[in-house]
Amino acid sequence: MMSLPTLSRRSLMVGGSSTLALALLGRAPNALGAPAPATMLDYTSPEAFAVAEQAYLDLGAQHNEAGLYAWGESYYLLGLLLMYERYEDEAYLDTFEERARHVLASTDAARGVTDYRGVSGPGWRAAGNYTAGHAEFALSDESPGIQIRWAGVRSAEARATVTNVAGEHFDLELTHPSSAETLTGVSLDPASPDYVVDAVHALFNGTRRWTALDHRESHDASDRVAASAIDFEPQFYVFSVHTGMVVRPLARYVRTVLGSPRYARRQAFAARVRRAVQEAVDFHWDEFAIDEHGRGDFWWARNAPIPWDGLMQPYNQGHAMGAVYAELFHLTPTAPLRRRLEAMMRSFRAGVESDGDAIIWPYWQPYGAKYRGYTVEEDLSTYTPGTPESPSPRTSATPPSRWSSSRACTMPASRTSVTCGNGSRGRSPRT
What is the tens place of the pLDDT at every residue in 113-152? Predict the structure, then answer.
């Protein structure tokens, strides 16, 4: 069974919070394990940054397979740039460039690893808690058979066990830390009321995230599976939100360095980084679409081994790459980037509401299937066949008046004089 470390934004924050908090208070344990004298550090100071920096570097991030680049390295890289902008100490840029070389040397292509499709690209794959796990039951002649999937966290801890095989029928035990199910007398025959794929799908709900897939080209009465127990293998996927998080500080660095002659000695490296940023952006280019209302969003590919395949990505995930688009647009304004940025602004405008003196928005777009809920019959997602609707928005909230005009989705006039139109799906960010 594949064993991957688990990491999320929350666990990254919590995991190092105690040590980091004590360090910033001047109370980190010394070499003998005794607390140091309490001397408060200014958290905006270079001294405090150095403490936080070391706490992150101690994690030893080498890749993104557990999300550490997306939710750790990205913040560190951005922090280095912000510290340089505040203190103008080029040592921060030197360190940034060292870390950028490390990050670019550990793309999937550089490491020679692939995603679930077998593609080795310019991004950083992830698995673990982020993707679905699979257990593959081949037929007795070793041809493709039945795939059982778990589309939730800790997929590597799931197991499927076939017992009591009698012809085409068998018992199937499914175990996971949050779900244990036993299906008796299931069948390989798609015409049977006990068809294994249908039986597994019938289990699915918000906490029992089991689904199945029949890989056979056709059914034969002689098909058999052997009694066996299979541990699930987490699948690798390159998330646009992870790429956006990692690439955004790289794009900001490029804009800083290529935008001023004072950085002449850094510009050759910045040009290399720019090419890497563009390649990473291109890798996800076809995951974006603009609807008939001119709203633009990123989508997860159907059948991708992730919980919400086939659905629109929520605001925060799509906007990670949107922030990269904005950095690139500032560097070199192009029509395709402008169309996408304007379309994303329309999308966000559709969800933004005012609540007193606050601006609020839902996690999922209010016009999307995930927000309204969808049924199995709609056949929108293979790993999450159906889902209940999200909580209704606050009825007291109203659209912010300052966003009531169509000009709200237009790029600033200082960058372009083109007004906001309906938009269209571009094909290349370079043209």
Answer: 999 999 999 999 999 899 999 999 999 999 999 999 999 9
Environment class of 393 (CB within 10 Å of its CB; exposed 0-12, middle 13-18, buried 19+):
middle
Using CB atoms within 10 Å of the CB of residue 250, give its burial: 0 to 12 exposed, 13 to 18 middle, 19+ buried: buried
Contact partners, residue 94, CB within 8 Å, separation at least 6: none
Residues in the chain: 431
Query: Strands (DSSP E) along 233-392, which ranges?
Result: 233-234, 288-290, 296-298, 353-355, 358-360
- pLDDT value, residue 391: 52
316-346 burial, b at 16+ Cβ within 10 Å, e below that, comes to: ebbbbbbbbbbbbbebeebebbbbbbbbbbb
> What is the rounded distance in angstroms from the CA atom of residue 288 to the CA atom of residue 3?
32
pLDDT digits (tens, 9 = 90+) for 349-389: 999 999 899 999 999 999 999 999 999 999 999 999 988 76
Q: Where are the beta strands (DSSP E) in 83-158?
A: 133-137, 146-150
Name the DSSP letter for residue 76: H
Those residues with Cβ within 8 angstroms of residue 37's Cβ, 6 or more apart along the chain or in another chain? 26, 27
Cβ contact 251:324 at 8 Å: yes
pLDDT over threshold 70, residue 35? no
Q: Cα–Cα distances in Å, from 387 out to 204, 397, 415?
A: 10, 25, 42
Q: Taking the mean position of all CA atoms in its chain, how far away is CA 33?
A: 38
Task: Find the radius of gyration of the CA atoms of the chain.
Answer: 25
Contacts of 114 by beta carbon, 8 Å cutoff, 6+ apart:
108, 120, 125, 236
| Full-model pTM | 0.84
- Side-chain half-sphere exposure of 326, counting CA atoms within 13 A: 17
Buried-state track 4-14, b at ≥16 Cβ within 10 A, e below 16: beebbeeebee
What single-letter DSSP state applies at residue 42? Answer: P
Residues 6 or more apart whose CB falls under 8 angstroms from that of 159 comprise 135, 174, 175, 176, 229, 230, 231, 232
According to DSSP, the residues that pair with 312 across neighbouring strands are: 299
Tell me the sheet residues that pair with 173. 161, 182
Label residue 238 exposed, middle or buried (CB < 10 Å: 0-12, 13-18, 19+): buried
Taken in order 380, 386, 392, 393, is the CA torsion positive or negative? negative
Q: CB neighbours (10 Å) of residue 146?
A: 24
